[in-house]
Structure to design on (363 residues):
């Protein structure tokens, strides 16, 4: 993660007072048996940001660690698999990808009430606003180029070489994902949205051909990265909950979606900004850099991929809405995300029609 001040920036500040949802005594005992640096009782502070796997700063004297756990209470099938996150970090960190070093995994719910893992605290800076208002044009360009290069590095790691050949299922990645997020959406659905119903019908019959397979992050954007304090290089890629094996164009299109969605202060999106004046690479420049780094001749039209990315986003946020109703949403700001669902569905359907979806599916 980062140092104290940047951790607070990244998570929207620590909860206050410190939360009582973890048994610090039980956690202390478990950590002391596994990490040599843990001497004396630990203290825990929860990051107030984040919607899926609750994340905490764990302080043990002069040392600090990061804990990620599953939410308490009933969960949707296959969601919040912190065990998979830990397995992934164990494979990618030694391969040289900038990730936090995983330290210990607990699969026993009896310790703190859910499975969790411990990873190192990585120092660095988090950028929440994609416009990078506090940086110079040269620094903005360097940050974006570093972000693109780190994604390309991930996508050029051979999953078999790092022991991740079984991390995802075979077959068309987008086909599996459309099926998964349709299932997840249905499991947490609270209302009928015509655009979502149309996407559920159209996406499976319009799947793009898959030509590559790699480890994909699943939520790759600027505010899920930590940058080194002294230079614009990625120090750590965070939040691997949605990672799997799949088509790297999923990650790439999800990142490029930020270039086409309207910018709002504090958001990663860039649409409507004067990128040339800001020093930020254009969509074309970003695409060219990624393709050159990954050995591609170019990228396909991204409208289908944009529609899919927003469809998946709705599926994720619908799960958050279900957790609100069940009383175990991780963030107090979860309702703000849920309110965005209708607009996200509308934008997704606009991209779908650009990719060839018939308007008649809405009727």
């Amino acid at each position: 993660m980062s140092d104290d001040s940047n951790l607070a920036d990244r998570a929207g500040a620590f909860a206050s007072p410190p939360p009582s949802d973890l048994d610090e005594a039980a956690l202390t005992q478990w950590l002391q048996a596994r990490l040599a640096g843990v001497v004396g009782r630990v203290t825990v502070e929860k990051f107030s940001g984040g919607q899926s796997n609750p994340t905490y700063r764990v302080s043990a004297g002069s040392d600090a660690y990061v804990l990620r756990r599953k939410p308490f209470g009933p969960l949707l099938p296959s969601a919040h698999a912190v065990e998979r996150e830990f397995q992934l970090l164990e494979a990618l960190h030694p391969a040289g990808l900038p990730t936090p070093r995983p330290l210990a995994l607990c699969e026993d719910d009896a310790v703190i009430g859910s499975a969790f893992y411990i990873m190192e605290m990585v120092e660095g800076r988090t950028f929440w606003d994609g416009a990078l208002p506090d940086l110079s044009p040269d620094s903005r360009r360097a940050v974006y180029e570093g972000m693109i290069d780190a994604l390309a590095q991930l996508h050029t790691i051979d999953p078999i070489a790092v022991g991740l050949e079984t991390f995802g299922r075979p077959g068309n990645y987008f086909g599996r994902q459309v099926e998964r997020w349709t299932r997840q959406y249905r499991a947490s659905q609270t209302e009928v949205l015509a655009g979502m119903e149309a996407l559920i019908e159209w996406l499976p019959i319009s799947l793009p051909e898959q030509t590559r397979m790699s480890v994909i992050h699943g939520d790759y954007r600027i505010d899920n990265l930590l940058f080194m304090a002294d230079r614009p290089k990625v120090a750590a890629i965070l939040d691997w909950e949605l990672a799997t094996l799949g088509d790297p164009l999923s990650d790439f299109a999800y990142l490029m979606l930020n270039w086409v969605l309207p910018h709002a202060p504090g958001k990663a999106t860039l649409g409507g900004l004067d990128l040339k004046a800001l020093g930020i690479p254009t969509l074309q420049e970003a695409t060219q850099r990624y393709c050159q780094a990954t050995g591609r001749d170019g990228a396909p039209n991204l409208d289908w991929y944009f529609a899919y990315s927003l469809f998946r986003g709705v599926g994720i946020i619908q799960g958050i809405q279900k957790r609100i109703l069940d009383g175990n949403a991780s963030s107090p700001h979860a309702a703000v995300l849920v309110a965005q669902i209708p607009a996200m569905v509308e934008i997704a359907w606009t991209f779908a029609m650009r990719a060839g979806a018939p308007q008649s599916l809405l009727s």
Q: What stands out?
A: The chain is about 40% helix and 10% strand. The beta strands are 43-46, 55-60, 63-69, 102-106, 116-120, 214-216, 225-227, 234-237, 244-246. The CA atoms of residues 142 and 229 lie 13 Å apart. Residues 1-20 have pLDDT under 50 and may be disordered.
